[in-house]
Write a structure and sequence with these properties.
Blueprint (H helix, E strand, L loop, with lengths): L1 E2 L13 E6 L7 H14 L4 E6 L1 H4 L6 H17 L7 E5 L5 H10 L4 H5 L2 H9 L6 H16 L4 E3 L5 H17 L8 E4 L33 H9 L16 H14 L3 H7 L5 H26 L3 H30 L5
Parallel strand pairs: 2-3, 3-4, 5-6
Antiparallel strand pairs: 1-6
Helix pairs in contact: 3-12, 4-7, 4-13, 7-8, 9-12, 10-12
The structure holds adenosine-5'-tetraphosphate (AQP).
Length: 342
C-alpha cells in the first residue's frame, strides 16, 4: 500500500478513522472492487470505518431517477455482500446527511477556481459530457473534500484516479487550519499497489469505468460467471503470446494485475505459472479466477437485494450515526467562520 504524508492529531478517538465511497453511477466494476471496496473490508477491524454511497456526486452526470434509486440500494447491498459489517462500520447514503452539502458550500469559499480547473477528472468528464458541463462537475472535488473532512478522516482508501482530488482535500484542510486554528484532520491516501488502476478491457490505455458505454470494456462485480469468462477472453491484448509484464503490453499487464489481485500472487509468480502457455490459456484462467473470486459475493448480494426493509434500516441508522459525527465538525467550522449560532 502507498500511504501519503502524515496528518496532525485533532482530538481523535483511539482508533483512526477511514472514509470512502462509490458513486451509484453505473454497474460497479472490478475496478471499483479492487481499487476500493476489497481494501475496505481488510481495514474494518483496525479502524473506525465510514463508507458512503455518494449519490450526490453521481448527479454531476445526468442519471435516470429510477436507475439512481435502484443503484443506491445495489451499491449498499454490495458493500455488505463484500464483507462490510453494518454493525461495526457506518454505512450510509450521502444525500441522507445534509451536512455534506453544507460543508461543501463553506469549503468552496476556501477553494480556488484555478485549483478546480486543473483537475484531470473535470477535464475528462467535460470532454465526455460536452453538452452538460455543469457547475457540480466543476465543484465535485469540494464536495469530496467535505465528505472526507466532515468525519475528521485519517485515511482514505481509493484508486489512484482519485489521488488528485485527495490532494486538493488536504490543501483545503491545511488552508482552513492555517487561516483559523486546527479544525480538520489532514487525511492521507491509502492506495493499493496492484489494484490502484484497473484498465479497460477494450482499450487498456484507459481506466475501467462503470459509466463506459462499451459493455465489453468492463467486468461488473455482478456479471454472471459466463459473462466474466467471455469478457476476459475478448480482452484486447497485443500480438505477442508470452505472458510477461512489460512496456507496450498494456492489455497483458492489466490482466496480470487483475490475476494477482484475485490470487494474491506476485507478477513474477504469475509469469512463471504461465511460462510456455499462450494468451488464450491465460485469459481463460483470469476469467475463471475472477468468476470464482466474486462468486460468494454475488451469492450474498442476491440474498440481500430483495430485503429492502433491511437495507432501509441500515441506511437510516447509518445516516443517524454519520450525522451525529458530522454535526460536531459543522458546529466547529461555523463558529470559526463567524456564523451566529442559535
Ligand atoms: N479502474 C479502476 N481501478 C481502480 N480503482 C478504481 N476506482 C474506480 N475505477 C477504478 C475507484 O473506485 C472508487 C469509487 O469510484 P467512484 O464511483 O467514486 O468514481 P470513479 O473513480 O469516477 O469511478 P468510475 O467507475 O470511473 O465511475 P464513473 O464511470 O461514474 O466515473 C474510487 O476509490 C476510485 O478510485
Amino acid at each position: 500500500m502507498i500511504t501519503e504524508t502524515n496528518s496532525p492529531e485533532n482530538n481523535k478517538p483511539a482508533k483512526k478513522t477511514i472514509f470512502s465511497g462509490v458513486q451509484p453511477s453505473g454497474n460497479l466494476t472490478i475496478g471499483n472492487y479492487l481499487g476500493a471496496i476489497k481494501n475496505w473490508t481488510v481495514l474494518q477491524d483496525e479502524y473506525n470505518c465510514i463508507y458512503c454511497v455518494v449519490d450526490m456526486h453521481a448527479i454531476t452526470v445526468r442519471q435516470v431517477p429510477a436507475d439512481l434509486r435502484r443503484r443506491t440500494y445495489e451499491t449498499l447491498a454490495l458493500y455488505i455482500a463484500a464483507g462490510l459489517d453494518p454493525k461495526s462500520n457506518i454505512l450510509f447514503v450521502q444525500s441522507h446527511v445534509p451536512a455534506h452539502a453544507v460543508l461543501s458550500w463553506d469549503l468552496g469559499c476556501f477553494t480556488m477556481y484555478g485549483e478546480l480547473g486543473r483537475m484531470t477528472q473535470f477535464k475528462d468528464k467535460s470532454r465526455k459530457n460536452a453538452d452538460n458541463i455543469n457547475a457540480g462537475l466543476f465543484t465535485y472535488p469540494v464536495l469530496m473534500a467535505a465528505d472526507i473532512l466532515l468525519y475528521q478522516t485519517d485515511l482514505v482508501p481509493v484508486g489512484i484516479d482519485q489521488r488528485q482530488h485527495l490532494e486538493l482535500a488536504r490543501d483545503i484542510a491545511i488552508r482552513f487550519n492555517n487561516l483559523y486554528s486546527p479544525t480538520f484532520t489532514v487525511p492521507e491516501g491509502y492506495i493499493p499497489e496492484t489494484g490502484m488502476k484497473i484498465m479497460s478491457l477494450a482499450d487498456p490505455t484507459k481506466k475501467m469505468s462503470k459509466s463506459d458505454s462499451n459493455p465489453n470494456a468492463s467486468v461488473g462485480i455482478l456479471d454472471s460467471r459466463d459473462v466474466i469468462i467471455s469478457k476476459m477472453r475478448r480482452a484486447v491484448t497485443d500480438s505477442g503470446s508470452e505472458v510477461r509484464y512489460g512496456e507496450g503490453k498494456d492489455g497483458i499487464n492489466n490482466l496480470i494485475n487483475i490475476y494477482c489481485c484475485f490470487t494474491g500472487k506476485t507478477r513474477e509468480e504469475t509469469e512463471k505459472e504461465f511460462e510456455g502457455k499462450g494468451y488464450g490459456e491465460f485469459k481463460a484462467a483470469v476469467g475463471e479466477t475472477v468468476a470464482d473470486g466474486l462468486s460468494s459475493l454475488r451469492e450474498e448480494y442476491s440474498k440481500l437485494i430483495g430485503d429492502k426493509q433491511y437495507l432501509d434500516e441500515i441506511m437510516r441508522s447509518g445516516a443517524e450515526k454519520a450525522a451525529a459525527i458530522a454535526r460536531k465538525t459543522i458546529t466547529k467550522v461555523h463558529r470559526k467562520i463567524g456564523y451566529v449560532s442559535l
